[in-house]
UniProtKB/TrEMBL annotation:
Key word Cell wall biogenesis/degradation present: no
The keyword Cytoplasm is annotated on this UniProt entry: no
Name this protein carries in UniProt: Peptidase M14
Extent of Polar residues compositional bias: 12-21
Cofactor requirement: Zn(2+)
GO-annotated molecular function: hydrolase activity, acting on ester bonds; metal ion binding
Matches recorded under Pfam families: AstE_AspA_cat (PF24827)
Organism (species): Lichenicola cladoniae
Domain (Succinylglutamate desuccinylase/Aspartoacylase catalytic) ranges: 74-182
C-alpha cells in the first residue's frame, strides 16, 4: 500500500540543486549530501503471475467484479476485497483460488470484491509500480462529502459503484501488499472494535491501530467502520511484498482464519505454530513536506528503534526523530513523494 516512488529533488520535477534564499550555504551543502545518499530506486522483481479474473469480472450482483454467495442461514455479511491498488494482486490470487474452489459459506453471506479493475488491467511486469491507480489513489476517497460530490475520476466513480456493497457489510477485510521491505501487519484503524477484530485473525501477528493518511480516508475509515458505536468492523491486511509468493501464503492464511472465525468454514489447524499477537498504536504520521525527504538508512518496516530522540531521517532541513523508546517503524517508504506518508511511528502496547 506504500506510495508509488517518484523522482526526488528540491521540487516535484527537477533534481538540480541550487542554493536559494531559504537555504544558507551550510544547509544547502547538507541537503546535497543527503540527496546523494538517497537509495536508488531498486529493481522490483515480479515473482507472481497476475490471476486470470475473466470468470468473475461480470460479477453476480449487478456490480462488476463483485461475487456474492448467500448461505440462506442467519449470519454476518462478510466482504473480502483485493485490488484496491491495481498492482497489488497477491490478495486477488487468493480470492481467485477461493472462487475456483467453489467455496460457499456455511452461514451468513460472503462477498468477494475485485476493486480497481481499470488499474489492474494496466499492470505491466516491466513497470510494476505504474499501475497502482489510473487517476488517483482509490484508498483515499472514502469520505461521504467526496463520494457525494460532483467530481469525476476513474477511481472515484468506481468507489461510488462499490458503496452499496460496503454499506451492507458487517465485516470487511481489505487485502493489500507493500512495495518496500516490511514485516506483514494488520491495520485496524483508530477504534477499539477494529483492534479487537484484527486480533481475532491471528495472522499477521502485528496489529497496528492508526488514524490513516493525511491525504484522505481509506476504506477501513469509511463512516460506519470508523464509528465506535457501530458494530460493523473492518481491517486492512498488509500481507507482505507486492510480488512475492510468501505474500500470497500470508493472505491465504488470513482469509482462512476470517472465514473460520465467522463460522463460514469448518475450522482447520493453521500450518505451523500460532504466532504470538503484538499490538502497536501509531502516534505520529510523518508526511513528506519536501521532495528531498530521506532516511539515514534503508529501514525495514517492523524495525523497533530502541532509544527516544534517535535521528531516523531528514525532511529538507527538518530532522525526523523517534518520540519515545522502542519506537516501531510502520511501513517506511524509502522514496516518498512530497505530500505522501513517509513512515508512521508507533508505540508498542502490552501483548494480548
Amino acid at each position: 500500500m506504500t506510495d508509488t516512488p517518484e523522482p526526488i529533488g528540491p521540487d516535484a520535477t527537477s533534481t538540480e540543486l541550487t542554493p536559494t534564499d531559504s537555504y544558507d550555504q551550510a544547509n544547502f551543502s547538507g541537503l546535497a549530501h543527503r540527496l546523494a545518499h538517497i537509495p536508488p530506486l531498486p529493481r522490483f522483481d515480479v515473482r507472481l503471475r497476475p490471476p486470470d479474473l475473466a470468470p468473475w469480472l461480470a460479477g453476480n450482483t449487478g456490480t462488476r467484479g463483485v461475487m456474492q454467495f448467500d448461505s440462506g442461514q442467519a449470519g454476518p455479511h462478510v466482504a473480502v476485497t483485493a485490488l484496491m491498488h491495481g498492482n497489488e494482486f497477491a490478495g486477488a490470487i487468493v480470492l481467485d483460488e477461493l472462487l475456483r474452489q467453489n467455496f460457499r459459506p456455511l452461514l451468513g453471506k460472503l462477498s468477494i470484491g475485485f476493486l480497481n479493475l481499470a488499474a489492474f488491467d494496466r499492470f505491466d511486469a516491466t513497470q510494476p509500480t505504474a499501475s497502482r491507480f489510473v487517476e488517483e489513489d482509490m484508498n483515499r476517497l472514502w469520505d461521504q462529502a467526496v463520494l457525494n460530490s460532483s467530481r469525476q475520476s476513474v477511481e472515484l466513480n468506481r468507489a461510488r459503484e462499490l458503496r452499496t456493497l460496503f454499506d451492507s457489510v458487517d465485516i470487511l477485510v481489505d487485502l493489500h501488499s507493500m512495495l518496500w521491505p516490511s514485516d506483514p501487519l494488520i491495520l485496524s484503524g483508530p477504534t477499539a472494535k477494529g483492534r479487537r477484530f484484527a486480533c481475532t485473525l491471528g495472522t499477521p501477528s502485528m496489529v497496528v491501530s492508526d488514524q490513516g493518511h493525511n491525504s484522505g480516508p481509506r476504506l477501513i475509515d469509511y463512516r460506519m467502520f470508523a464509528n465506535p458505536d457501530d458494530s460493523r468492523v473492518a481491517c486492512l491486511i498488509e500481507a507482505g511484498p507486492h510480488w512475492e509468493p510468501i505474500t500470497v501464503d500470508t493472505a491465504r492464511i488470513a482469509v482462512r482464519a476470517l472465514l473460520c472465525g465467522a463460522g463460514m468454514a469448518e475450522a482447520a489447524p493453521l500450518p505451523g505454530p500460532v504466532p504470538r499477537q503484538h499490538c502497536a498504536e501509531v502516534t505520529r504520521v510523518v508526511t513528506a513536506s519536501t521532495a528531498s525527504f530521506s532516511f539515514i538508512q534503508s529501514f525495514r518496516g517492523g524495525e523497533v528503534i530502541r532509544d527516544r530522540d534517535t535521528l531516523i531521517g531528514h525532511d529538507g532541513a527538518q530532522e525526523i526523530r523517534t518520540p519515545y523508546d522502542n519506537c516501531l517503524l510502520v511501513m517506511p517508504s524509502l522514496r516518498p513523494s512530497r505530500g505522501h506518508t513517509a513512515v508512521r511511528l508507533a508505540r508498542l502496547l502490552p501483548d494480548i
